[in-house]
Amino acid sequence: MLERQGKWLLQLRDDVAGIVYPGTWALFGGHLEPGETAMEAVQRELLEEINWTSTQLEPWFVQSSPQRVAHFFRGSLGVPLTELTLLEGQDMVLASLAELRSGEVLSPKNAEIRPFAPSLQWAVTELLKQ
After folding, report:
1. Strands 7-12 and 2-4: what pairing?
2. pLDDT tens digits for range 66-78
3. What are residue 74's DSSP bridge partners?
4. Burial class of residue 23 in the structure, from the number of CB atoms within 10 Å of its CB (0-12 exposed, 13-18 middle, 19+ buried)
5. What distance in Å separates the CA atoms of residue 92 and residue 25, rounded to the nearest whole number?
6. In this structure, are residues 49 and 87 in contact, taking their beta carbons and an 8 Å threshold?
7. pTM of structure
8. Closest Cα to residue 79, out of 107, 58, 51?
9. Where is the Nudix hydrolase domain (predicted)?
10. Going along the chain, which residue ranges are E strands?
11. Dist CA 87 CA 50 (whole Å)
12. How many other CB atoms are found less than 10 A from the CB of residue 63?
């Protein structure tokens, strides 16, 4: 979960059948490649998805379900949104805490309000505990 000036970076997943939680807001990230650590995976995924990475990410929490184990990281987004290149997904935004509490966010590109993927909701729940 990347934070910039009190807002958090979200990815609107593609509306593609067969992907996990299509058309919902989520965090940038993905799966581990064989032999890869969770930290290596998040760095690779950020580079693949927004052409940016950070050496200042910190492990945050792990959420397990019967389908997967999700590793969450936190850090600062050290650049403005305009300096990121969206390479995966259909939109990205910096969402306020009020928007995160609501469970849905407006997509500027699609002019639609979209809900959160469960993984983003887990992160928001952890964030609100602090």
Report:
1. antiparallel
2. 888 999 999 999 9
3. 58
4. middle
5. 9
6. yes
7. 0.94
8. 51
9. 1-130
10. 2-4, 7-12, 25-26, 58-64, 69-76, 91-95, 104-107, 112-115
11. 6
12. 15
Options 3.40.190.10, 3.90.79.10, 3.30.70.890, 3.30.565.10; which CATH number does 2-128 get?
A: 3.90.79.10
Q: 15, 33, 34: which is closest to 24 by C-alpha?
A: 15
57: its two tokens: 């990410």
| The token pair that represents 124 in the structure block | 């928001």
Residue 110: closest CA among 40, 25, 46: 25
Amino acid at the residue 38: A
Q: What is the pLDDT of residues 76-119, one digit of tens each?
A: 999 999 999 999 999 999 999 999 999 999 999 999 999 999 99
Under a CB-based contact definition with an 8 Å cutoff, are residues 104 and 117 in contact?
Answer: no
